[in-house]
């Protein structure tokens, strides 16, 4: 059987399960028969490899997304689109773009993202949609200067209250967490870990991984003084927000609370116009 016949058969079987799809390409995200939101125009424009095989019919594009696309990390519609929404306005595309740490573990399936938000994200202070984030930024900008300035949509390197850098605020927050568990504080490593973390923060703005863009280990950014650890994150607008995210992730938390670590360097890089905006790195050593 040829590939087109196979795809047509798949589409027919899929339609029997999921309902009848509109065959004409639509101009905006819509709720499909199974309840998911999908924008065929966006999907076709951003996935020409899919169109070359599946064509640009809505039913075929959605078939690809359900069978393959969501597992490949493809988004069903553009973040920030005007979309039909749940009662509390959860926007899966926004959530995926805003929180790459979640996507790296759960993928971009809207149902899994919704599951994360309901069970973890809401308690971690993550936003369900862009409007919610904008409202929070507007509220905090009128509040106290200590946290308000660090919650702005355009983050600054310092806060008005203490004058300390974002990096040093993260050090303080790390040591506060360690003190809660009776662990010794980490000392700031200005000569090795801090410069290395700053280099890594720039690198993850283009390649979000513990592997460096040249294919080498993240730890090649520093000289090796012993046991090493790295935490990375993106999309968080303040030191407190990124620390909350790390502390709510078992792997990142274990680095922060590792009794064998004694030194820390932190890198922060703000890159307006990039997908996540803010990039954070912690480098630990014994």
Helix content percent band: 40-55%
Instruction: Estimate the mean pLDDT confidence.
Output: 75
Tally of DSSP β-strands: 6
* Distance N to C terminus: 61 Å
Sheet with the most strands: spatial strand order: 3-5-6-4
Which structural class fits the helix and strand makeup? Answer: alpha+beta
Helix and strand succession? HEEHHHHHHHHHEHEHHEE
Q: How much strand?
A: 5-15%
C-alpha geometry = elongated
Tally of individual helices? 13
Radius of gyration: 22 Å
| Residue windows where pLDDT falls under 50 for at least 5 positions | 1-27, 139-164
- Give the biggest beta sheet: 4 strands, mixed
Descriptive overview:
This protein has 286 residues and is α+β, with helices and mostly antiparallel strands. It contains 13 helices and six strands. It has helices spanning 3-18, 40-46, 48-54, 58-67, 92-98, 100-106, 110-124, 130-140, 145-148, 166-180, 193-203, 239-247, 250-256; strands at 30-31, 37-38, 187-188, 228-234, 263-270, 278-285. A four-stranded mixed sheet has the order 3-5-6-4. Strands 1-2 form a two-stranded antiparallel ribbon. Helix 5 (92-98) crosses helix 7 (110-124). Residues 1-27 and 139-164 have low confidence and may be disordered.
């Amino acid at each position: 059987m040829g590939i087109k016949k196979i795809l047509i058969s798949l589409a027919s079987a899929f339609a029997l399960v999921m309902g009848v799809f509109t065959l004409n390409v639509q101009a905006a995200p819509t709720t499909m028969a199974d309840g998911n939101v999908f924008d065929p125009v966006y999907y076709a424009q951003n996935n020409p490899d899919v169109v070359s095989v599946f064509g640009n019919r809505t039913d075929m594009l959605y078939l690809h997304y359900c069978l393959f696309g969501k597992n490949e990390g493809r988004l069903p519609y553009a973040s920030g689109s005007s979309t039909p929404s749940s009662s509390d306005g959860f926007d899966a595309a926004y959530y995926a773009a805003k929180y790459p740490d979640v996507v790296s573990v759960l993928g971009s399936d809207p149902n899994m993202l919704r599951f994360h938000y309901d069970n973890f994200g809401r308690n971690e202070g993550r936003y369900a949609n862009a409007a919610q984030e904008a409202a929070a930024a507007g509220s905090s900008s009128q509040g106290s200067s200590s946290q308000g300035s660090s919650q702005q949509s355009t983050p600054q390197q310092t806060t008005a209250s203490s004058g300390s850098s974002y990096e040093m605020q993260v050090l303080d927050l790390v040591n506060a967490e360690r003190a809660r568990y009776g662990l010794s504080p980490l000392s700031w490593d200005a000569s090795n870990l801090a410069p290395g973390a700053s280099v890594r923060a720039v690198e993850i703005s283009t390649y979000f991984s513990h592997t460096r863009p040249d294919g080498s280990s993240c730890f090649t950014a520093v000289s090796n003084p012993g046991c090493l650890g790295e935490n990375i994150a993106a999309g968080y607008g303040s030191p407190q927000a990124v620390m909350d995210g790390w502390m709510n992730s078992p792997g990142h938390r274990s680095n922060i609370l590792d009794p064998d670590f004694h030194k820390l360097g932190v890198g922060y890089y703000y890159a307006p116009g990039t997908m996540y905006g803010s990039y954070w790195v912690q480098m630990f050593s014994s």
